[in-house]
Amino acid sequence: MPSFNLTNFDAAMKHMYPYKKVENMVYKNNPLLAMIPKSTKFPGRNATYAVEYGVTNGRSANFQTAQNNRNGTKLSDFVVTRVKDYAVVSVDNETLLAADGNEGSLLDVAKSKTDSALLALSRSMGSDIYRSGSGSIGQLDDSVADDGLTLTLTQSADAANFEVGMRIVAGTATEGDTLANNGTAIEVVGIDREAGTLTLGSPMEAAWSIASGDNADLHLYCEGDAQNGTGNSKLKISGIDAWIPSAVTSTSFFGVDRTVDATRLGGQRQSATGGDVSISEDIINAAVKTSREGGRPDACFMNPTNWAALAIDLEGRATVAGSANRRRYDPKDKVGTFGFSSLSIATPTGMVDIYADHNCPINVAYLLQLDTWEFKSLGAAPRILDFDGLKGLRQANEDGVEYRWGYYGNLLCKAPGFNCRIALA
């Protein structure tokens, strides 16, 4: 058996992680991320897309009036910029040398670490595709007293966004606002995912300069992800919640003031009806709204907790599609397809498939026309960053070899008004 060297290790890594396998690992448990159309062409500094929000007014039963009132189509140019995300993994040289002559052992070590990096990236992408781009992955519950070390999240389901060993920073109660104490980070040393609590390695009062026992509804961020000021550029994907926010404001979004036409430039919103009205009725009412604008939504995504409540309510009254209902994440792809279980209900615009996605925030659903969305990236997302031809890099300050994964891209919506955000509570 040939002796180990970086060249044959690189070749082995290439064999273990071909493009399709990476896609399968990233997309298989992330329904929305898998289904959104994708483009690996994102040249230049940005992607400009013109969204039409008003047709010409040169129309009338009277010719002279039509001629006098003619004007141009109302368009707004969304200038979408790229964001970046990375996952870095290293294998120390001692481990590499100890496995010399035993390729299986060596590759097992490399695979374990690389799979972990890809899982971290896929979890980040799967969550980001729903969120605003601020980097917030959870908010503290100010109504629950804390001891500075054990913190309670407002939504226990958000505990899925945290990992033991993750270093987190805190901002104010305003999402995306300035970080506490210049972004001082604290390590998460324990998580109770059922209770939705985090245990910190050091007290938050000193690290984040807040009063004892008062977490002030702080937003939490993974270190390095936070927008750190609502006037600053977002560092994470501007996901569904950015394109279809709970409320449209005059704050510029990719260069557009969406208050000019909050529906056609900022999407539809369906409030929680409450009372005896079921989730299915809220979805149908949302479909009615989108149909008025000419939209034909074909998919709805929600948290598994809300999906389960809907499934119980619709028992015997909805079509259930199992793994045979296969959706391609790329219409040009002839190999990679995934089966996601869904419920199907009839709406004014046709049948809508409803999917459970663990990345979706609880108590909100998104009714989408998928062909109005596109995730654009520079090349594959994610990919191993080997632009110099070397997949592995000798570490300058460590005794090991480093592998870098990442992507450069963002989400774009071509017709926000054909999509709707549904509040479920």
Structure description:
The chain is an alpha+beta fold and 425 residues long. The protein contains 11 helices and 23 strands. The chain has a 7-stranded mixed β-sheet with strand order 11-23-18-12-17-16-13. A hairpin with a 4-residue loop joins strand 8 and strand 9. Helix 2 packs across helix 6 (103-128). The longest helix has 26 residues, at 103-128. The relative contact order is 0.19. The model is unreliable at 323-337 (pLDDT under 50).
Topology (SSEs and partners):
Layout: H1 6-16, H2 19-27, H3 31-35, E1 38-39, E2 46-54, H4 63-68, E3 74-81, E4 83-92, H5 93-98, H6 103-128, E5 136-139, E6 150-152, E7 167-170, E8 186-192, E9 197-200, H7 204-208, E10 219-222, H8 240-243, H9 262-266, E11 268-270, H10 279-292, E12 299-302, H11 304-313, E13 319-321, E14 326-328, E15 337-339, E16 342-347, E17 350-356, E18 364-368, E19 373-377, E20 383-384, E21 392-394, E22 400-413, E23 420-423
Parallel strand pairs: 1-19, 11-23, 12-17
Antiparallel strand pairs: 2-3, 4-22, 5-10, 6-9, 7-8, 7-10, 8-9, 12-18, 13-16, 14-15, 16-17, 18-23, 19-22, 20-22, 21-22
Helix pairs in contact: 2-6
